[in-house]
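Hi there,

I know you've been waiting on this one. I reran it after we fixed the sequence typo, so this is the corrected version. Both the input and the resulting structure follow.
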Amino acid sequence: MRRRVRNRAVRLKHLNASGKFPSGNTRYYYRPKGQKGIPLPDFAPDSVEFKEAYIEAVKGRRVVPGKAASGSIEAGVQAYLASDIHLGKAPSTRALEKRFGQEIAAKYGHGILTTLKPVHIRKALSEFDAHPANNRLRLWRAMGRFWVDRGMIETDPARDVRARATPKATGAIPWTRDDFQAFRNHWPIGSSQRLAFELMYQTCAAVVDIVRLGPANVHGDWLCYTRQKSKAEAVSPLANAPAWFEPTGALQQSHADAPKLLTYLTTQAAASRSHNAVASWFSRACTEAGLPDRSAHGVRKGRAAIFKENGADVEKRMAILGHETESEARGYSKSADLIRTISGTEVPTKVPTLRHGPVSI
């Protein structure tokens, strides 16, 4: 399959994509019609290195990336990026490590690996604020362990480099019962915003999972799914829910007149929505409902707090939210009202069975 790679004002022609490099970059060949293809090196198509190799290929010459000097920091970086340790990580992590690794090689690659000391790494990280510095430190530590294990150096230079203190993130604000009611008062049943909210309320799923839910996830009176983040199993009662769940039956009403499609949340063209698009769209819906500092993830945290207030034990909360550890479950329910936690609350015990189908967003 022939593809044309666009790079702003420059259009690169006669490129054929053929698989991927272990780094995740697409493997391209410069192959004009009737000519033998010239392989291009492992670089992103929008990089300077790729464009330079492309220009050479147009001239009929193949560019082979130069090998780093033996014993240099650049050689150490290249060895790590070619290792099973790096290549076995998630694609997003590999991409980040490769970017940081290339940055390190460009700045300090000429240095001698065996003379690398903690003070050098601290100085390199001092150019960045806390969060980006700590992100790069993770790569330095991974490379340091790798270099020691492979006998390239005797002492890990990153081992004693401490992470920078960072401001504690507060995360999403948990919704309260008043917040739930305010959203319902603004968005009526039948609106796509209300459907999304009721899905979040009933399943307590994160947005990345909400967009994947559909009729196939329903098994009798239960909705079951596997979390994208942790691969943990999660379940939610759709009928005969226990009192601590605070069922409302609103999800069934939101589905009453909807067509049956693969997923509940869809575009106008009946296609599934991306989680990033739904998260932004739902935040705007919250603002319109007078809840500008609320988000989809806050619904999940608010429900966890309510379950604790109503007396649900840790195991029950873990089953609904798909948590794998008790500490994670306790963290999500920290906003629970202490008085309600002690005294409990009386709520209805019955919710009608879910009727399936999506509403377009």
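Quick highlight: The chain has a mean pLDDT of 82.

Best,
R. S.
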